[in-house]
Amino acid sequence: MSEKKQNFLQGTAMLAMATAIVKVIGALYKIPLNAIIGTQGFGYYSTAYEIYAVLLMISTAGLPVAMSRMISQANALGHNNQVRRIYTTCRTIFLILGISGSLLMTVFCRQLAAFQNQPDAWAAIGCLGPCMLLICIMSTFRGYFQGQSNMLPTSVSQVIEAIVKLVVGIGLALLFLKTTNSVALAAGGAILGVTVSCLVSSVYLWGKFRPSYAQLGEGTDTPDSFGVTAKRLLIIAIPITLGSAGLQILTALETKIYMGRLLGMMTQDAADTQRGIYSMAQTIFNMPCSFITPITISIIPAITNHLTLLKTAEAKETEESAVRVMALISMPCAFGLATLAEPVTALLGGYTGEDLVLATGLMAVLGISIIFNAIVLVTTAIMQAHGHVNRPVVNMFLGGLVKLAAVFLLTGNPAIGILGTPIGTLLCYLVITVLNITSIRTLIAEPPAILKNALRPFAAAAIMGAVVYASLLGLKAIGITSRLILCGAPITVGVVVYVVLVIVFKCITREDCLLLPKGAKIAKLLRL
Fold first, then answer.
1. Is the model's pTM score more than 0.85?
2. Residue 264, SS3?
3. Cα–chain center distance at 71
4. What is the DSSP letter of 158?
5. How far apart are the first and last CA of the chain?
6. Are 430 and 447 in contact (CB under 8 A)?
7. What is the pLDDT of residues 425-457, one digit of tens each?
8. Could you tell me if 487 and 506 are in contact, meaning their C-beta atoms sit under 8 angstroms apart?
9. What whole-number distance in Å separates Cα of residue 77 and Cα of residue 221?
10. Does residue 369 contact residue 402 with C-beta atoms inside 8 Å?
């Protein structure tokens, strides 16, 4: 296995481990937070996050990718002076974007809340405003480290961020609720914990960056000017930003559309409650999807390095390994959440009655969407690494239009209601998946085999899903009512079944297995 391939696998493992820790901490944060501020408060929290996500994507979606690609290229050629120029150029651009975004969220928090049909979300939006600048600062450091295939600072900073958010966010939510008795202000206090966590994480990254940057040796190369470097960065970053921010903007429009449609059929409180339930389902949906992001972060500099050195075979090998790892993670999560939608939402959301029925339907559809979302993330990263940054933008835009159309048509039907929103999400990612795979086959001379490498994990996960659902029905048949047992027992059965099927179907190669701790011994045990 090549050194860069090993770096890719190690980087992915490191980021995946950090993601696992962050998600556990996130569950410890959002589950009690939902209990403290209630479904309505959680809806305010989510509304602030959606607006923040739009501005965040505009500020940081494209530049870190462009930065990591260009630094990886410069490192491969030994151009240390150009590495410095790339960093200083990105830092300037990030500061401009961060300050602008922070001012927009803070000054116009009431107008943004009213635009989303949730006027009481103003406090949460305003408290999250300063976080924009901090995120941009962190992205500069992370892009620098990722370009050098060093994922450790990013991983540690994510864990620090999650821990501080848990402690400060829960503490401020309780404090604000007790002192003001206002759910809106309590939601603002909870989200203020996010801003504080970003501040602490920024300080950590700065401490790691200074010695690393100081140790960067003097190069013999003549770096490009600020203007030339900025132009190259923006040529890569703008299409990526348009694609990512476009989806986030469409998501914000989606919220406005379905809230408007719901308000035509029910009261503001009822619509806010359904909005909160859907937000909780989205939170669960985002958990497995977040484990795919480490793969995309790691493969872009790895593939770029191979392509810079004209190693197309190694680039294709890395891409297909990324697809296999993606499928191994996403497929069982998709089938597991789809089949266990009821006990999972009952356990994590605490829903009963009609709320549980709604949450179950929402979660089942979002569960299946995980498959296509994961494929979209990896295939988009592959095209970006090859320099094809415009095509994913077009594909995402077309998928987003399908999503908005579906949400508008379906949520206005009283028989479907808010369930039309996850259906729109499923259709959106399905369309983008088809377009991305077609694009890769036409744009890349030696395209990776996407479907072939995902097929075996898909088959293993589908069988696992059937067994899991059967075990759930069996537990209900014998009178088990404990949410923990109805959720935990089928998951345990599913894990065992899936591991066996992965071995039987030979879903992983020896190189993929080396991703794991003691991977060589595991590969030998599995005879890989």
1. no
2. coil
3. 23
4. H
5. 14
6. no
7. 999 999 999 999 999 999 998 999 999 999 999
8. no
9. 10
10. no
Quick one: the chain helix, strand, coil %, rounded to 5? 85, 0, 15
* Burial class, 215, CB count within 10 angstroms (exposed 0-12 / middle 13-18 / buried 19+): exposed
- The pair of three-digit structure tokens given for residue 131, joined into one six-digit string: 């976080």
Q: Can you give the C-alpha Rg of the chain in angstroms?
A: 23
Neighbouring CB atoms inside 10 A of 479's CB total: 6
Q: CA 71, CA 69: separation in Å to the nearest integer?
A: 6
Contact predicate 79/221, CB 8 Å: yes
SS (H, E, C) 119-147: HHHHHHHHHHCCHHHHHHHHHHHHHHHHH
CA–CA separation, 84 vs 82, rounded Å?
5
**Using CA atoms, how far apart are residues 276 and 32, in angstroms rounded to an integer?**
14
CA dist 444 and 342 (Å) reads 42
Provide DSSP, 408-463. Answer: HHHHTSTTTGGGHHHHHHHHHHHHHHHHHHHHHHHH-SS---HHHHHHHHHHHHHH
pLDDT of 527 strictly over 70: no
pLDDT tens, position by position, 318-345:
899 889 989 998 999 999 999 999 999 9
**C-alpha atoms less than 13 angstroms from C-alpha of 299 in its C-beta half-sphere:** 28
What letter represents residue 33's amino acid?
A: L
Q: What is the DSSP letter of 117?
A: T
Q: Tokens representing 363? A: 């979660």
CA distance 264 to 287: 32
